[in-house]
Amino acid sequence: THLLHFLLIQYHPSHHLIKGASCGVMAPSYVLAIDQGTTSSRALLFNKEGVPVGKEQLEIKQYYPRPGWVEHDPKEILDTVVKCCRNAMLRGRASAADIAAVGITNQRETLVAWSRSTGEPYCKAIVWLDVRTSETISILEKGPGGKDRFRAKTGLPLSTYFSALKMKWLIDNEPQVQKGAASGDCMFGTIESWLIFNLTGGKNGGLHMTDLSNASRYMLLDLKKGTWDPEICNELGIALECLPVIKSNAEVYGKVKGFGALDGIAISGALGDQHAALLGQGCLEVGSSKNTYGTGCFMLLNTGEKAVPSASGLLTTIGFKLGENAPTTYALEGSVACAGRTVQWLRDNLKIIKEAPEVEQHALSVQDTGGVTLVPAFSGLFAPYWREDARAVAVGMTLYTRKEHLCRAALEAVAFSTVDVMEAMKRDTGKSLGNMHVDGGMTANNFLMQLQANLLGVDVLRARMPEATVLGAAFAAGLAVGFYKDIKDIKAILEKAGGWESFPSKMVVEDRSKEYIRWKDAVQRSLDLQKFEAQAQKQLDQAAAAKRAQATPVAQETKVQNEPAPEPVLDEQPVNTGCRFW
Hints:
By secondary structure, this protein is of the alpha/beta class. The protein is built from 19 helices and 24 strands. The strands form seven sheets. It has a seven-stranded mixed β-sheet. Helix 10 (273-280) packs across helix 15, helix 12 (358-364) packs across helix 13 and helix 13 (403-429) crosses helix 14. The chain is globular and about 65 Å long. The protein starts with a helix and ends with a strand.
């Protein structure tokens, strides 16, 4: 029925007409927003009041070739995004003519390398969680400035998190990328760059661009100038020709081309997911902040037109720039690698829950964690520690420990990680930040929200508009084409959606301090564990080499003829789950 209706409105001769209108053209009614995340792709169709009228979501496959490595398939990402857009339009009964613009928000730092001439990716995308660049960091840290070698210009410390070191790793380790970078055929970009390139024509004239917020996560951007820094690029061996052109977060970049029902829609907004959430939560004033609970956990504080350097392990980053000639809004950010990903680990690796919402039920079924503290440093520790040598630990287990205790400890870990970031923000600003605005999938967990308020000692305000991130992308795109008239319209949309639900703090200071000491002790136990992981990988490599050496040529030939080829190891779960139990 939806398909029939879509075809009728797409091709009916009166579809684009307003009865009695002198111009004969109907004003678009919607903005389409793409939300390409770490675990799924989504598309939502918003009306002018900011209400979603059609949406679709598809999961994407996670690849773990080795312990600490995480990859995605760029072609699968593109495919799921296009399918989500088409289905969201069908559900909203909208055609391309009904849509004023499309905005994109995306998982940041995840890097794609592809060929300019063929439009094909050279290899899988390296995900922001991936830690394969740890050795590169160890080498760079020995130079001037140590871990803060590039911080003065970029606002970022040396970390496996950021895109530049992923580029360097690919140039050093992937022959095709190395050859492409040398010849000028290689294009580097984060997910929004890959999507925009393909949606605007691909190898046939597709745009190679990024937006300012995503560019600020490469560790190559001069924050004050808003341009790539040639000295850092040269030091890391990255040619400027391989990098995308930098645009603002709200301007018409181009139009969709070659995707049927999507063709002709203007692409006019792009923001990294956390920057989109800052806008989507209405954090327009200096000092306003938000915390998003998704795969990771990300707190951003609006610092206005001033880039504030951090002395406490936070990131100085772009907030947003809503127009080519608009002022740039900066932010301080605290990034936590594993939040929802920790719950996913309980489900997919340990298999102690079947669905993510079960974690709340298990946590509520026990009074406490039974002495267990979980530090989910599966990809090292991000803010405010920046320790890529850390690995996950579960401290304090006894024979009394049950899955319910682990579930509660997992949620506690998310809340404690946010306390770490909040304390760092207090030190950097010299101020208490007051109430915290929150959004993201994990905020549906009432236990977590109350626990967060208790451990922070402030009220937690959950947006009744659950789609703050994707709303931010839709709003930026709509602003660029006049669908929305003023940046302050975002406040009215949020108020109309019901504002915020409050979770007041109910824990006394003494109890809060005691709990936080327990957390800090466990964090110390997670440090410097990467060396054991390297030793384990070396042993596995040696064992595999010995096994190959023992095989005779005849045996190998017989195996090839009579046995099916084994599944590629690259698509399997790693032997080492990345967690140590104390």
